[in-house]
Input
Amino acid sequence: MNTVINPRGQLPVKQQIAMAPRLDNLDGKTIYIVDVRWPYTHQFSQEMYNVLSGRYPKTTFLLRDKSGSYGEDDPGLWAEIQEKGDGVVMAVGH
Amino acid sequence: MHAGLVGMPNHRLIYVPHPISREPSSKCREYIEGNDPVTGRPVLDEIVEALTKPLTKEDMIESLEERPVPRLLGPDTDEGLQRLFFEEKMTDYLPIVLPTEERVAEMLTGTSHKPDEVVGELRSGYEALSFTVEKVAANAVMAGARPEYLPVILALAASGVPAIATSTQSFARMIVVNGPIRHEIEMNSGCGAMGPFNQANAVLGRVATFMSLNLGGGGVPNLTYWGSQGNSLNYNHVTFAENEEGLPSGWKPFHIQKGFKPGDSVVSYFHGYGIWHWKNTYDEKRHKAILQMANWVLPSGAYRSGLGLLLDPIVARDLVQEGFPSKGALSEYVYDNTKLPFREYWRYHLVEGMTLPAAQQGVEPYASWLKEPKKTMINRYRNPEEISILVVGGSTNAFWQAGDWRYIGSFSIDEWR
Output
């Protein structure tokens, strides 16, 4: 019988984050649709905007491109959504 | 999946069939009005539900969870431990040398650094793990390393560069060693240097993969590794020593090109997918043929591409005779002669996805490139430094190889002796 050195590194402390509160319904609300800008997928976000706007006319949908490439942060947009939005749908493409 | 691993386990995800890139709007609408291929439920219903369905108590939990990692595994039989390493996805599924305390202690004689010294952090999955010299030594034992290899392995570990990434693309690395340690650990830079004919060449790349799995928390398909096809180079990557003795006069070893001294021992990391072999040696000048390979590489920009030319010493000597007195002169030549038309450049997938957004944000030089007249030719590479030239091989024939190897960085081995 043998023991061995565990080759695994130390995992960081895992922080569980509470999810944002949900809406009662979509009426009168502003929902952002964020396109993360995966190459050549904007037409998907545009169609999502078109379909949702047509189906839920009492809701304001705003289509926004995240700035920078798909892997970059966009604190300005997150702040805008927090201030002006009620919800967000983020489209991550491939 | 990512959110669940780092702290939001019930993050509301909805799927559509994919890929959607370049699909027409009509197809995208069909997907949005259709069903989620994972749940079978209508996508639109799921979107509304994700926004309006009340949170559960679990959704609202905020917590901090310590995750201690035990220093030892076992006790068990050798067979049981081998099986444990397979089951826990800590290996490449080839047999390993079990990292017993005795073997790891012997490995640690290869460095003056203390076992409990923190080397750094590595992120191969979604989280950065920290690790000590002892942990690196354990991975080195597993791969079949000798103690004298440990400074090279510690330099790779301390670089913070994972050998395996999470991407849906299937990356590999090229690992090149320069300086005196090449001889000290008997690396092969000559005949068959990139083949399975030398212990150090074979083992160093294998350790890099083990460290990505175990010290970087990656390499689990469909969880922390998403490379659709995988890459067989990940078994030990493309790992060799540069044949510094085979360099023609005027051509400097790679580490000296990067600012190190001749007596320094250095390991360099490159990022790419694979290698191509060129064997048409008689029809044209070598520098002309090299352009054909250089034109296979994706255009560079905010997504950095790169070319790695791996030249046999015979080819390097021929190139000197063809008018290239230095590696730099050849890099300049390739840089100047691999331009592509404006429209072709901007329609490339990753140029559209990474360089165009940067250009639109005013990031130079991309912003200026975007303003160029449509008839302008754009450089495939951002600068000549993206074309790395390495001499390797045993002069048994005038062949060479190349790959889409983007230079990441060079790291001191001597600091880890």
In short: The two ends of chain A are 49 Å apart (CA to CA). Residues 5 and 27 of chain A are 59 Å apart (CA to CA).
